[in-house]
Amino acid sequence: MMYGPDAGIPTVPELRLTLTHRAPKIGPLDAELADRKGYWAADRLRIPLPGTWTVNVTVRVTEIDQVTVSKTMTIQPPPN
């Protein structure tokens, strides 16, 4: 969740999410987020294999200002 200076939820003009898997050198895969007027969604994102992925989220807050946060996440294989 992102909050503005007044502790409210701000309008975000652009949001980008990418995933990279370093071991097999996959990515960055662009989630192609779409603004659904109140939330952002990725309708076609498919993560091709389990493992540890680096997730980068870039939020553009003005025409010239943006911030990127990177985290890792582990995707488990589907149950049999």
Shape designation? elongated
Low-confidence stretches: none
**Largest beta sheet: what is the strand line-up?**
2-1-5-6
| Main sheet overview | 4 strands, antiparallel
Helices and strands, in order, run as EEEEEE
Strand content: over 45%
Give the structural class. mainly beta
Overall description:
The protein has 80 residues and is mainly β. Helix content is 0%, strand content 46%. The protein is built from no helices and 6 strands. It has strands spanning 14-21, 26-30, 34-35, 40-41, 51-60, 66-75.
Q: SSE layout and pairings?
A:
Elements: E1 14-21, E2 26-30, E3 34-35, E4 40-41, E5 51-60, E6 66-75
Antiparallel strand pairs: 1-2, 1-5, 3-4, 5-6
